[in-house]
Amino acid sequence: MLPRTDYDTLVVTTPGLEVVTQRELAALGVTPSAHVEPGAIPVRVPLEALYTLNLNLRTASRITVLAANFRARTFAELERRAKAVPWGEWLKDDTQVRLRVTCRKSRLYHSDAVAERIAGAIVARTRAHIASTKAEHDEAAVAQLILVRLLRDECTIRLDTSGVHLHRRGYRQAVAKAPLRETLAAAMLLAAEWNGSAPLIDPFCGSGTIAIEAALLARNIAPGINREFAFMHWPTFDSAVWNATLDRARALQRDSAPAPILAADRDQGAIDATRANAERAGTLDDIDARCQPLSALDPPATPGWLVSNPPYGVRAGERQRLRDLYAVLGRLGRERLRDWHIALLSAHPELDAQLALPLVETLRTTNGGLNVRLVARVPLERPAGGATAPFISR
Known about the structure:
This protein has eleven helices and 14 strands.
């Protein structure tokens, strides 16, 4: 079966990161095709671009394609329309299928009943297998995810092209407390306008996600270079196009990061996790990982960027104990990092106040279920080798 010439595609990202993801899309030559909604950026792309987006986007969590869109007010109408979908374009005979159904403001409001009809339509057209919606996470991850949404009697069916979420780069197996998602770490770097040409410091590195994402960005290593995607198991998968996409990405990689990347933490376990993760990512030689408290931080002489996710405490008592830590960080920014960009993920304005730094909010999103903001201080004089367009493989 020949693949489509183009796909109505939805780039799914965490709400609040749309602007950063749109910048990435623009760098890849892709323009949104309709109104951007929170967490969803619609585009229309050819097959090759579909592969490229999965491989290169650093801040997207999933990429889906439209399989069908129709009105359905009765189960008979739903079944008839669903059987007309060309399921064989995406599903092989042995494919495991996982359905995720949501119903809102529709006559067909029972999601399990809708899933049953869609599953029946798939089985009628293919020899695919319907996986249990209660499958374990790892088992469910290998199944082809089909997203069905009924909204005001309008049924939209989308297929996930990515497989496991795109933040799963494959390198992060060792984690410290409160791990930061790779996509959010990358968004912090891009929103802070760091491009790899100036030094970077993360003084609260945890398991090293910001430092590793920085090294991947600085070396122009595509974030999906070492993982599989759902589209690779489609009957229409074009291995020649995919291999050419990989070859172009690898040709743009740099051998090393052009500027120092320092990852520090007072917890030796965090430093061990950072080094183990960096080794899996192939960036161990690019990162100087040190076990040291904030007060012992020794920044490079050349001004650069401090980008970090400092502890912000969930309970008020924890935040009270963090006030001194934030005061030390603010003093460091005023005295030893006067010419540096500073970008911090923040959950509590009262802790920001302890920094005593002029901060501007650049992003607002969520992290671990908490509402957070990326707040930044930009020096009056930009450091030499300052920000330009971010490195993105084409």
